[in-house]
Amino acid sequence: MSQQYPPLLVIIGPTASGKSDLAVDLALRYGGEVISADSRQVYQSLFYTTGKISEEEMRGVPHHMLDVVPPGESYNAHLFVDAASRHIADIYTRGSIPIVAGGTGFYIDTLLFDGSMSNAPSDPSYRRELEHRDRDSLVRELREKDSKAYDRVDTHNPRRVIRALEVIRSFGRFVPQERRERYAHKIVGIKHSRKHVRERIALRLDARFDAMIDEVRNLLDTGIDPDWLDGLGLECRHVSRMFTQGVSKEDTYTNLLRATVAYAKRQETWWRRYSGAMWFQEHEFKDMYRYLDDVYAHV
After folding, report:
1. pTM given for the model
2. CA distance 117 to 113
3. Quick one: residue 226, left, alpha or beta (phi over 0 = left, psi -120 to 50 = alpha)?
4. Which residue of 2, 14, 194, 209 pairs with 264 in a disulfide if CB–CB is 3.0 to 4.6 A?
5. Could you tell me the CA-to-CA distances from 244 to 22, 210, 216, 225, 240 in Å, in that order?
6. Close Cβ partners of 114 (under 8 Å, ≥ 6 residues apart)
7. CATH fold of 8-114+179-296, please?
8. DSSP string, 214-244
9. How remote is the C-alpha of 200 from its chain's centroid?
10. What distance in Å separates the CA atoms of residue 125 and residue 128, rounded to the nearest whole number?
11. Phi and psi, residue 113, nearest 5°
12. Longest dimension (CA), the chain
């Protein structure tokens, strides 16, 4: 991307931290458009289960990479990067600022940096063995063999987990990808205490839980494969198990809250790789605006 354009603006933070609201605020302040970097919000018909921003909450700001594929289809980081890159080019051409916001660290990483995981050879027989196993068992093995790899790899993508296990088998440890910057960028992160993150997650879950149940029921009634929903993790996984495994509503709520809090912790671990990110608590947002104004206010 030509350096005549201002750097890509990226907003990170744990789930339920307020990334979507901040993205809209910054888009209105600097004349930007938002690109969602969320591996589940790309799907149509998943609103409450993915915490998708409403049209009213967008406040007229254009949003991209929401509702782009039907439920039940496969999607991955490379498809995301191809589509998001086209949006970025179009946004720059319109004289606007692309603002990337989302909680899927692997999508953001793949968008910002180009490279390959490693040059480890592929073992066809070992790969076939792994491909016959379910994702949960693969993720458990990855966590047991290399906890750092578990923090770095997109564990919702079985192909990435399998490749990481191949790398570990070849080298005895995970070899991270070579990172070459694809876009000049600035990253700002929303920082909350662990207690406040859990409170925000619980509040959002309370507000949407019944609607999540209705949403998943409707998807199952239309013939969506329960295994596909389970593979999406978090809300889709736990709510679908109410119908497929007979888990009670109370246990579903408890399990989902616990899983989402754990997910937020994993996100925080992922974000640590961005050494250049600037982190701000809500009461420090004025400082954040001053920091960003130097770059974006006069574009």
Report:
1. 0.83
2. 12
3. alpha
4. 14
5. 37, 17, 11, 11, 6
6. 180, 181, 182
7. Rossmann fold (3.40.50)
8. HHHHHHHHTT--HHHHHHH-HHHHHHHHHHH
9. 18
10. 5
11. -130, 140
12. 57
Six-digit token string for 262: 């754990």
How many Å apart are CA 261 and CA 255, to the nearest integer?
10
Q: How many CB atoms lie within 10 A of CB 247?
A: 16
Tokens of 41: 């919000």
Which residues lie below 8 Å from residue 110, measured CB to CB, with a gap of 6+? 77, 78, 80, 81
Residue labelled with tokens 């509702």: 67
Rg (CA), the chain: 19
The pLDDT tens digits for 75-117 are 888 899 999 999 999 999 999 999 999 989 889 988 998 864 4
Contact residues for 193 (Cβ-Cβ < 8 A; gap 6+): none
Separation CA 224–CA 21 (nearest Å): 31
Burial bucket for residue 152 (CB in 10 Å: 0-12, 13-18, 19+): buried
Sheet holding 278-280, edge to edge: 63-64, 32-36, 97-101, 8-12, 185-190, 278-280
